[in-house]
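Appendix B, Record 12. Input sequence as logged:
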Amino acid sequence: MKRLTYADFKKHFTIALCLFTGLLHIGQFTFFPMESVKFFTWHVMLGLTLTFLYKPFRPSERPAWRALDALLIALCLLTGFSVIFNYDAYVLMMQSNQQPLYFHVIGIIVTLLALEAGRRALGLALPVIAVITIVYAMAGGDLPGILGHRGYRLSRVAETIFSDQGIFGTPVAVSASNIYLFLLFAGLLGVSGADKIFQDIAIALTGKKRGGPAKMAVVASCLFGSISGSAVANVMSTGAFTIPLMKRQGYPRRFAGAVEAVASTGGQLMPPVMGAAAFILSDITGIAYGAFCLAALLPALMYYTTLFKMVDLESVKHGLSGLPQQDLPDLKKTLRRSFKLFFPLAVLLVFLLVIKATPMNSVIFAGAALIVCGFLSREDRLSPAKTLKGFEDAGRNLPQVISACACSGIVTGMFALTGLGLKFSNFLIQVGATNVLLSLVLAMLICVILGMGLPAVAAYIICATAIAPALIKVGVPVLPAHLFLFYFSCISAITPPVAVASYAASGIADENAFKIGMTAVKLGIAGFVLPFTFALNPDYLHAGFDPLTLFTWVSAFVVCYSAAIAIQGFTEQRISAVERLFYCAVIFTAIQSSFVVSALGWVLFAALYFGIPFLRKHRKTRGNT
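Logged structural output:
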């Protein structure tokens, strides 16, 4: 009989824990509901345990490091079960604001576990910010001026962190309720061959056109990213194929890497999943997730339309053609294979937008449809082993989310305790009282700086706590204010010097990450301009079957084409500097909320895009005769 090694035990225990985590979350919203805070405790306990399993202290198998990880896992289970088995006492204690010493110790241990999990899964940036806020809460009584407050003892700090204002607050609540189930859905999609099918659809649709490989990267990353909701995961999955193909077709290495980084980052902005921060945005604003997805659709399409057109014009610059016919997959065959993926996605959208079910129930039904379709599929059948692998992939992706949410919960808890968020918000209100644009610029800078060192979910949570109230008070509506912060929290993935999506693409493209980041900023310019557009003109978030929607959508695509042409300096040939200025004028006029002004932009665009080439052609024809 084979001797069970430590590695074998760890592997089997981890898989069993991933399966249990998935079943627990499904059961919570179907057959076995439990009290919310008790469920959040299970979520945190399982998430932190998986973090220490997937992210060991050292890669080395030395017994000392194993013992340290085992101790941390034991503490996760001890603290979690302490709340679960003493839930009534915990609730009573929270209601009376009187924590016994036992719960103080448990609260301190959970705080340290969350900080260490954050360090392992995310790096130092977010845990350091969390520690600074804890120190501020304890030492703020000695600070002068506006930063000073009454100061709080360690026991009060631990009590706040170990409550629904801290670790069990909104970030973890949304992670437990929404995010994990979508991670599970994405994991099941992955083992169903979604990446390969989306890739084949993209190649079949765009591969033959000029600049086909780059356009394929945009379409494939949009399709896959709208489900995965992770920029880096998108780069590593689709980029492994698209970047080498772009390089072989003649695109510069930095351009190939930048296209994939920008397209992958846009996946966090494209409904229906949009990344973890989108669920938190929906919860904070109280806007139904389905309604939020509809509102976010046009800006996301503008982002990808601008990128797609810029890629098209780049192929004109370099004279690049598409792929030969023999290298293209059969579209009909690919679409038949894709039924098992698109039917579950249709189920998800119907439940979200038509039936208006909760995101949790919608994704559970979509996951069930995916499993059934996968078992019925003749090709790439979804076997029990693959299904288990989908649960395992969800568990592997959970540590980054739970660590970000737990550490963010510490930060927001300290903001609430000390009033720091309100003070920061009041400062922005004073600065932008007479200038909304200035407030938006300051908010953008803070979001981008935070996003350079934090995952999008953590950057958004902190900004939503500290900045969103200020933007709302200076006149920006609730949804545009939060979506503004959401966009800049996500777009930081391509913003140098710390651009995680660009770094991921640089390894595949074999190019300097900073060069890719700078090119990505140019290609992703829509992601930097769009937030200002819908913050100042909320019509771009309007979705309905009415003239306003039609008017806004026409204006949106006129703006997208004009922006791409103005930046690239090409249509079917190089254009003059004066023409580029006129295209900038189109952007400025078409983006206005006034129908008359916007229609003038449409007319100017038609004259530039269709009229000038016609006159050139006519003049050339007359010259030849």
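The chain has 28 helices and no strands.
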